[in-house]
Here is the input.
Amino acid sequence: MTSKWVYSFGKDNNEGDATMRNLLGGKGSNLAEMAGLGLPVPPGFTITTEVCGAYYDNGQNYPQELSAQVEEALARVEASVDARFGDADNPLLLSVRSGARVSMPGMMDTVLNLGLNDDTVKGLEAQSGDARFAWDSYRRFVQMYGDVVLGVDHHEFEDVIDTYKRDNNCAQDTDITAEGWKFVVGEYKALVQQTLGKPFPNDPKEQLWGAISAVFGSWMVPRAITYRKINEIPGSWGTAVNVQAMVFGNMGDSCATGVAFTRDPSTGENYFYGEYLINAQGEDVVAGIRTPQSLTQYGREREGCDMPSMEEAMPAVFAQLDDVRSKLESHYRDMQDIEFTVQNDKLFMLQTRAGKRTAKAALKCAVDMVEEGLISQEEALLRVDPQSLDQLLHPTLDPNAVKDVVTRGLPASPGAGCGQVVFTSEAAEVKAHAGESVILCRQETSPEDIAGMHAATGILTSRGGMTSHAAVVARGMGRCCVAGAGDLHIDAKNKLIRVGDREIREGDILTIDGSTGEVMVGLVDTIQPELSGEFGVLMGWADERRRMKVRANAETPLDAKTARDFGAEGIGLCRTEHMFFEPARIQSVREMIFANDEGERRVALDKLLPEQRSDFAGLFEIMSGLPVTVRLLDPPLHEFLPHEQADIDQFAQSAGISGEDVARRLGELHESNPMLGHRGCRLGITYPEIYEMQARAIFEGALEATVRTGAAVQPEIMIPLVGAVKELEILRTKVEAIAEQVFAEKGTTLEYTVGTMIELPRAALTADEIAGAADFFSFGTNDLTQTTLGMSRDDAANFLPVYVDQGVYERDPFSSLDTNGVGRLIELAKVAGRSVNEGLKLGICGEHGGDPASVTFCEHVGLDYVSCSPYRVPIARLAAAQASISLERSEARGAKAKKVA
Ligand code: ADP
Ligand code: MG
Ligand code: MG
Here is the structure.
């Protein structure tokens, strides 16, 4: 059986549709889908992604049947447009375009006008009656093909044009005549001959196969590999190649080309957003060579531009395009990013795909589309990437801050960023790696800059529009971006930006505001953004839809307030040691540690008691009635000790201890492996009075807060680092004894629970024993990951990136839960724990609580809640809702499959 490697699209032969994305790639499957909808798509064919795989598996050779299948599909295109490839009188010209499963902006280069040579150009000239157009198309082809396929640097081609313009007094490309372009073509070919030592290919078939191979070849270039790595796209997916009949937007003033979004991709506002250029071809719009014009009058006025919009300049075609916009939106039920060309007042659709959008736009589109009846609430919830909410929760510029605005560009990707000026992608990576924030400043960006853009806080360009490479990529990555700030003279070579009479150098601090386009010198204060109405609406839907609760890890009043504002339903982890570090307290903490005996220790602890009590009372008050899990002291004691000699001396003096005694005690407390040393509940076992003081502070604080707020506080006391049930039993008894004492003293009681963190493999393995003494388990996945993998979180940075690179672990196990290893322990502990204690409450409180993939895992295991840092609470709320929905859907599918079976 021979495989089918080639699929036709277009009105006469349409073999694909949008469901075939994996095989035909995004571009190819959507071209077929549009043709199927009856939209005007120039005919063509798609060489499948399977060919890409076969090509690389087979030493870069094509499957045997491919060439015949291409011939056959090409013949169908010829028949459909009534022209012949390579024919001198009636030539068919082609575009060769890449298209992977998911769009990879700018990754693969397109070759247009393929099939032109010294003979066919005459046919094009005769047919169009426009010699200038024909020769301009020809030189574009030689330039694109020379650059993309033959690898001749595009600057060299541009130099040829510049020289020609200088010698012939042409200010702009449009001043160059047919004869001029003819001359340029000759020069181009000479350049190719000279650079490569062989002539530019004249044979259209050779051109076609050259271009096809270039597309497949570009799948493996470093910039494509980098993009895939950042976006976690497997290399095995491959790209498809689309070969399509050309239509011409550069044949005169009744022609145009443009790109559009069916809604504003920055704000989500429901208006037709886009740019077009009259008498232009292909990438002229995004390349930033000519300034594109707005599609609509509304858009034009919004941007304060007086060049006519397409709506005004070409009303009839615009109406058609507007109609396509509605058709596509109601068909795909999502915001689309489209590319089109107008040839002699006739509209052609060249691409559609789901539009990349900012988090703000994603939210607004999702909520609006529910209101418009286009999608359900569930779909809306699934449409918004939880991780992207981060963009909304981060600071914007303080409107009252003093700003030294030096210029303004286009507001290309919202949010504000501040950092050191760098001029190259490499510098951005190096500095970012060293922990600095950087603003990457470029004339314009290109796909080579992907890694630098990812490393940067913000991106600033002096050229290019709202759909330039910089703008599109920055929005996708959630980096703020100001594009096309034309007053900036960015001189990367000399690491200098000139603007007016000012100079900005590498390392200087700039602030950019991607929401207004402002560029400012120096650091500008930022504030927390107001969350939009849509945010509240979507979060409300998420809350209705999720099963798991979401709590926050917080200990300071500020964090606790932020957490509540973001919708936390309690505190899942309050780390008491953070309360010990305040300057006023550290002295007492140190005295406690240096105490020679229990008596001395109790004196120091008595000083700490009122401080802890008021901390807890405050926290309980803020969380008024919501559960608060308080972890008793956890870190090794030496973390609290002075390390600098001056500090040591000062402590010795104020505590009235001799320098030698301090030095001796410091020596005693030294541990070779503090992470596995005298810490966690081991401190409680050896110095019970510490935990007793903390328990007393918790109960007294809780009673205080209950009186003040009127809402019953329910403290959950958490014993850390338990590895054996006995530890928990001993400490639980002590906590309960303190509770009885406090209740007796105050003449009142409250409900509380005692539980443990599961952060040692032994705890997970003996969970059935431990559950007998615990009211709850909280999976401390930071330590559980360290102890399960035997990998120190503080030291992993040196080797973990290499591990992830080589696929030893798919992701950093400290940011996304290692579900195969650590995850299994969690499941095991859950099952064992619940088998003896049905009501055992289960949660997770590591960094992973705010990671959507880990949250999904928690839903599958059936935990009761996740707890994460306050800023990630909304992310976890949405992720939990999505996890509930997808779990329910897969269970429903499972049930259906069972029935069928
Ligand atoms: P990218 O993936 O970078 O968007 P495309 O394959 O979409 O690359 O091609 C870029 C541009 O080239 C398109 O937006 C369109 O303007 C132009 N183009 C592609 N195919 C054709 C065609 N058949 N006729 C006219 N222009 C085309
Ligand atoms: Mg491109
Ligand atoms: Mg495109």
Summary: The radius of gyration is 33 Å. The CA atoms of residues 566 and 874 lie 6 Å apart. The longest strand covers residues 346-354.
